[in-house]
Amino acid sequence: MKKVILLITVVLLLFLFSIFTFSSPSENLSNDKGENNTSTFEDEESTLLGYYFHGYIDMREPFESFDEASTYMYYMNNYLEDYLNQQFVLTEGSHAENEAYIRYFEQLEDPVYPIFFQNKYDLNNGEYVKVTFKGGIMESHPAQIGEVTDVEVVNFTE
Question: What is the pTM of this model?
Fold first, then answer.
C-alpha cells in the first residue's frame, strides 16, 4: 500500500512540475524588460528564393549552365502542372512523352517541390524571384505560403 501511495505522489509531483516548467507560449509573452511581446508566428517574415512558374515557386539555386537552365525552363513551362497532377504511378497506357517528362523531373538533383502563392504581381514564367511573406508554409498539396508582402525579381547580372 505504501508503494502505491509513493508512486501516486511521485506522479503527481512530476505532473505539477511539468505544468510549471512547460507553461504555454501565451503565458510567456513578455521580454526581458517586462513589456508585452505580441509577436506571433503569423507576424514573422520569411523569404523564399526560386524560379516562378504558373503560380508556383520552385525553390532551387539558380542554374549556372545555359543548357541546364534551358531544359529546365522547357519542362517547367510545358509539364509542371501535369507533373504535379499525376499520381507518380505509370499505367500500361502511358505515352512515351509522359514518361519522358516524369523521368526528367525525377532525375533532377533537387526534386521539384513547388510552393503555391497568390500571384498579384506581374511575374513571368522562369523568372528567379525572392518572395517575402508572413506566416509559415502550409503542409498541404501543393504547399502554400501565407500573406505575400513583397516580390522581387532577382537579376543575376548585377
Answer: 0.65
